[in-house]
Amino acid sequence: MTDGVPTFSNKVSSAQLEGGVLYGTDFDSNSLDEPSFTSQLWKMNGNNRTPAPYTVSGETINDTWAATLGEAKIAKDDGAEIHTLGIQLGKDSGYTNDSSNTYLSQEEVRKRTSLIASSGLYQDADSAENITDYLKNQADVVLSRFNTITNGSIIDPLGTQFNYSNSEVSLTSVGEGLIENLPNFQINNRTLEVSNLNIGRDQEIQIHYQVHLDTESDDFKTDYWYQINGETTLTPNGSNPTNKVNFGVPSAKLPGVNLTFEKQWLANIENMPTEVDLVIGRKTGQNLSGWSKTVTIREENGKWLTYLENLPKFSKLGEEFTYEIKDEITQNNDIYHWISSSEDKNTIVNVERFQLQLVKTSSHENKPLSGVQFVLKNSQDQEVGAGRTNEQGELLFDDLRLKYDESYSLHEVPVSGHLPAGPWEIKTKIIDNQPALTVDGKAYDLDDQFNRFMISLSIRNDIDVEKFKNSIIIDKRASDSEEKLSDAVFNLYQLSSIDDDLTQLSPLESMTNLLPGLYAIQEHISPNGYYKDDQLHFFQVKFDGTIVALDSEAKEIPFLDENEEGKNGFILENGQDKELHLTLVFYNSPAPPLYLEVEKVDDDFTSPLSGVTFELTRLGRATENEESVDEKENLNSIVKFFDKNITNETIALQSNSDGKLTLLDAGGNIQENAAPISLDYDSKYQLVKKNSIGLFPDFGETSQWTITTPNMDDIQEHEEDNNIQIKGEDLLITPDESIRETIIQTPTALGIVSLIKTHNPEFKSLESLESQAKRTRIPTLSEENSAYVISFEIRSNVTHSFTIEKVDGADNQPLDTQFSLRWVEKFEAPQDFATLESLDLNSLELSGNDISSSLSNVPIDVRVGATLSTEKGSKTLEHMGRGNLYIISEENTPEGYQKTNTVIVAYMDKEQAYADKAAIHIRLARRSGTNPELLEFGNLEDFKEYKGGLDNKLGIVFANYKTNDIEDVEDAEAEKEVTDNSLEDKEEKDKSNSNSKLPALGATAIGGIGLTIVLLGYLMKRFLGKK
């Protein structure tokens, strides 16, 4: 049985590894491994424990397990049957003996313990009940192997480390069968002797007595398993005294106490000894024992600690020990005051008595004052110390230590040029184990190093301000041109040290009449278009009124020559008014140029749109606000500005043949090889569209774009990251949403509206612009080594409505019917549309949805088409534009009317958007007699259904004829063929030109073979979102 890991074993002399487990095979019986409180082998290294593994047979022995498992294996291999009970097994903390550490987990301890037992004979016990059940089961096994005990006896000697608590022993019959005659017993010479023991089947006796572990012997070891008994034997049969059976011998151990004793110092390190002897004692309750132990404590790693380990926790009577520091042996008792600072009295604090040191300074710059005399008196008004300050303004009372719980008064002899001060009352106390010193009721705290305690007295100097007439001027220049730059702001700081953190300081409000001290100037706001330089420039104003320039190590450096160029630094000049002028010459590097590229695009055909005029106006600085204005106004006395007035500037621009906005010359013409459109950083611009071309939409003053260029901080930050991440859309406010809000009529499922839309806003370096943005770049722009570009596209499209009016061919009265509409979304005519002779529907990519309802998205059979129903003889298709081809046929005529084979074909080409008047191609065609999918075009006047165009709108009048009326129409057409001979030449001329000259529908002259009207259809899903 075991309640922990093996803490002692014979040293292994040979070992072997089997199945991943290390077994000892031979052992040195004269040498022990005894880690005491752990299975892990360890050794002392100074005051610290460290692991102590060793190697045998090429294997590393880290703990006692190799020996324990090896001995068990040897026994089992010899035929022994080993039973093992693990009692409340826990983890092994290892050599540190610190429960927060883990050498072996609880599960690892259990696994190794189970390897001791024969197969199947290991059990865990986590409670006293588990142990009782196990022992009973083992007893049953033993009893099952023996018959009755007759006149038996037990010899039970007490272990050498134990004492009987008293002489009381109890024997009790506890089995199922009652034992009426209990055996006899006596304690003789530390041995319990039981005789006349007679036990039969199902009978059992229990023997109880109490012992104490002797913890006060000199050789007692804590956390060590001591056998409670010696060899305990049972003689089952008195007639056979040589037949003896051994009882299992229990063991017990006592936990130890590990104590840490600490010496703390509230003192100067130079007065501390190298070691101190502490005298440790112990007691139970209030009773001190005669035991004591002296330990030496030294400083190690910044702390004074010593340790006592494995001290008994309880006395030999079971009472708990309390350990404490009783005394200490050290030197320099006159310097220290000794106190105990913890309730357990394991920490001693040495508190140094105050040694008084004074530092006399001027109120300005804390300049030390020498030769000032002081006198120190005690509470009885007796002088206990006196002296004068040295060159550093210091006075140390060398041989004086201030006693605690005493009051002193410090007196100053007045010094010329300074006002007298004092006296000061000084008191010393120990409060909450901490030394305390007050001067006139104000507490002075010790610093972390417990340095000598100093009282700093500040006496105001009468500074002659007239000696310090000076001013600072900033001369700001461009590094590439020596140009004087404006709009820079510099901060001036007064420092206490060259290494001061400027973020913790506030800039001064003036650069004139600076008093003695150390100063630094740094650029706060750079001129627009120039990189900010964070370089610090240091100078010092001395008490004699002179000024010197300093480097970053506070060393004096020469001033610049007045005519020196290309270098940052100071120039010092004497003014006529005896004022010193310190000028900082400071250069800034320019940022790369910033350009604007805007492309005007025909959105219907994604092609350049030329001739559109814009105006670009600079509105001012983007980040200009009241705070920055106030800052500049406050700094007018600090910074010399080379100001230039910035006014709103407007330039005229026009899209060229490639759609790119280009500068116009004085005559309003596009400049050849014009310079790129240059922008200032940190500025707001307004781009206004001033005119439209042809029939493209014009939304007046709504068509305005606001462009905000990045500031220099943004550019510098992104360049330092080597990754420009400024988004074009963040720099641009577009009119797109406002233009959409002007839409009066929503398009149907077939159609879009005319809009002006912004596409593809970008901010990029010149080298990384996409090829589309580069394709027409002005040569001077492409030759730049480095530049940034803000670019975007402005797209416009053209739409119109188209009306079909249905009439009775005889009386021109409105007639309702249904047409079938089929269309091509983007049609490219193989030749001039007006000259096409035929159109094969099988070659077209027809598309579309049912548009009988504006909310319908029902797919249709594109070969059949969508249904158009007239109301009061009219049907208007709204929002039609360029590029669509519409084929409108009447599959079923109204009842009583002749069927028609005539088809309306409408198309608006690219050029018609540039006309002054809305126009659309309208042609009539018949289905071929041999191929109904082949449309054959003819003259409009050759179709009886054609009744002309519409007044004041784009459209066509299309007629149906009743069955009885069709003969009259045919007679009228035949009569028309008879003409006057004088008109034959004209007819021939009209006939030859019928396929090329089509008057615009709705114009004053309507005739020829066609009409012209714009008609474009798009799906509703593309409304307001066309790319």
Automatic annotation (TrEMBL):
The chain crosses the membrane at residues 998-1019. Coiled coil: none annotated. Residues 148-253 form the Tip pilin GBS104-like Ig-like domain. Residues 975-992 have a biased composition (Basic and acidic residues). InterPro entries: GBS104-like_Ig, Ig-like_fold, SpaA_PFL_dom_1. Residues 971-997 are annotated as: Disordered. It holds the Pfam family SpaA. Signal peptide: none annotated. Residues 355-414, 471-547 form the SpaA-like prealbumin fold domain. Keywords: Membrane, Transmembrane, Transmembrane helix. This is Uncharacterized protein. It comes from Lactococcus cremoris subsp. tructae.
